[in-house]
Amino acid sequence: MAPKFRKLLCLSATLCVLLCTSSAIGSEGEALLKWKDTLLNSTSLSSWSRANPTCSWVGIVCDEATGYVNELDVPCSDLSGMLDAFSFATFRHLEIIDLSFNNLFGAIPTNITLLVTLTILYLDSNDLVGAIPYQLTKLTKIRVLGLRYNQLTNPDAANFSVSPSLQNLFLCGNKLTGTFPLFILKHTFVGLQKLHLSRNALSGLIPENLQDIAPNLLHLDLSSNMFSGHIPRSVSKLTKLYLLYLAENNFTGGIPAELRNISGLGHLDLSRNMFSGGIPKDLGELAILHDLNLSWNMFSGEILKELGNLTALGTMDLSWNMLSGSLPRFFSRMQYMLSFDVANNLHLGGNILLEEFSNWTYVMLFNIANNTFTESINPDFCQISTLEDLDLSDNLLSGLFPGCLWNLDWLVYMDFSRNAFFGDVPTSTVDTSSLEYVHLSNNNFTGFFMDAIKSSNRLLSLDLGGNKFSGTIPTWIGISFPLIRILLLRSNIFHGSIPW
Predict the structure, then answer these.
(1) Could you report the per-residue pLDDT of 329-340, keeping only the tens digit for each?
(2) Of 40, 120, 292, 465, which residue has the fewest beta carbons closer than 10 angstroms?
(3) Using CA atoms, how far apart are residues 228 and 71, in angstroms rounded to an integer?
(4) Which superfamily does 402-500 belong to?
(5) What secondary structure letter does DSSP report for 496?
(6) Backbone angles phi, psi at 248, to 5 degrees
């Protein structure tokens, strides 16, 4: 073959490769590569190369029929850089962008509105700054707008319009200030289902007319702000609500009885406010309520038996209030309970028959600490095989330590401190390696150092102080507890040395 002809073939082959590669990535691929080149860190995008077709790149999803890019999905990819160099105009078919949990910084470019087909935008958990561009609301097909956990400030309310397609607006964890956002109040969001504004610096009252602004809300999250005043009774007109989070604000007054009208309410969190008065029996009508958190308030009075009707509850937290009386026996009907906490009410007490909770076959946390409960622990209580966190401390409980507790395979935290338990702690040969905290201080326990915890090699804290334990401190604790950080043996009758 003549040298000139061979050279011509080589040039033709090279040209073919270049043309084919260029065709494979197209204008969208070129735009993505240009943006990648501006990033300070793009290690996770190593497949973004002219050597590979665009549609094979990590995080890129193309329409099978047209080949156009319709999804950019690279969350948690350690990307660092800005969005300024992203050529939004190039992507005429892009429907989904998820760049959440990266290290993007700078402002959100206003020309993002050129993504005329965009339906879902997630820019959560980055370091974006500046005002939320009002132009975002001009994305006529947008359904989900996720800007959580950035450093964004209030948008220009005068120019903020509403896309009728918007269903979910997530603005938690930013720097929104002032009263309830005007850019929301001045519009009607008929299609809006989820409004999350938590962890900002918003203040003032909850608007009385929310049902007119967003009549179809399913989620309303205003937690961790500085809102104040009472919960308006009109909130009950948001009859489709499934989630209502008002925790960590400055709300006062009581719980409106009208909340019972939100029959589909599944999650109610009013914790860490200044609510007072009794817990209304009307809450017992919320038949599908799964999570109820009223902790860290000033609720008082007895827990009414009607709350026992909440048989779908998975979480109940009434801790850190001023409740009194006893626990309704009807609570034992809550067979789906996962976490139960009534600690630190001081005046909550009386006989508690722990065996009545033995049908809570899913419960992982059971906390009645710092109250005035009496009675002993029936071995039937050990039927709750799922327990991980058991806190009975600071009560008036008495009786023997039930050895069956050592058989709870998942138990991590056990606190019986400051009660009136007595007698020897039973020995056991079962595996107790799940235990990390064992606190039995200030009771009347007797006998030798417990060999039942010899296999607890994850133990971090052991407090046996203030009892009548006796005998030699065993040499094996130095080997069996390699992770121990707190060891309290004071005020017993032990002798010998600590083997470390």
Answers:
(1) 889 889 999 999
(2) 40
(3) 42
(4) Ribonuclease Inhibitor (3.80.10.10)
(5) S
(6) 55, 55
Separation between Cα atoms, residue 237 and residue 259, nearest integer Å: 9
Residue labelled with tokens 């029936």 = 378
Q: Which amino acid is at 1?
A: M
Task: Give me the amino acid identity at 393.
Answer: S
State the pLDDT at residue 422: 97
Tokens representing residue 495 in the block: 């002798």
**Sole residue written with tokens 């489709």:** 240
Instruction: Reduce the DSSP state of residue 228 to 3 states and report it.
Output: strand
The parts of the chain modelled with pLDDT lower than 70 are 1-24
Whole-angstrom Cα distance, residue 387 to residue 411? 6
CB atoms inside a 10 Å sphere around CB 84:
12
Burial of 89: CB neighbours in 10 Å, binned 0-12, 13-18, 19+:
exposed
* Domain ranges (residues) in the chain: 402-500
- Using alpha carbons only, give the angle 488, 491, 492 rounded to the nearest 5 degrees: 90
**The predicted structure's pLDDT at residue 17:** 33
DSSP per-residue codes, 129-172: EEEPPGGGGG-TT--EEE--SSEEE---GGG----TT--EEE--
Can you say how many angstroms the Cα of residue 221 is from the centroid of all Cα atoms in its chain? 13
CA angle 46, 51, 54 (to 5 degrees): 75
Closest CA relative to residue 180, chosen from 213, 202, 152: 202
Helix, strand, or coil (residue 275): strand
Q: Of 62, 66, 37, which Cα lies nearest the Cα of 50?
A: 37
Distance of CA 270 to the CA centre of its chain: 15
DSSP string, 406-444: GG-TT--EEE--SSEEEEEPPP--S--TT--EEE--SSE
pTM: 0.91
Q: What's residue 346's pLDDT? A: 82
Q: Show the 3-state SS of 282-344.
A: HHHHCCCCCEEECCCCEEEEECCHHHHHCCCCCEEECCCCEEEECCCHHHHHCCCCCEEECCC
337 closest CA partner among 379, 368, 376, 365: 365
Q: What is the pLDDT of residues 369-402, one digit of tens each?
A: 999 999 999 999 999 999 999 999 999 999 999 9
Three-state SS at 184: helix
Which strand (E) or helix (H) includes residue 176?
A: none
Instruction: Tally the C-alpha atoms within 13 A of residue 350's C-alpha that lie toward its C-beta.
Output: 10
The pLDDT, as a whole number, for residue 499 is: 80
* DSSP 8-class letter at 405: G
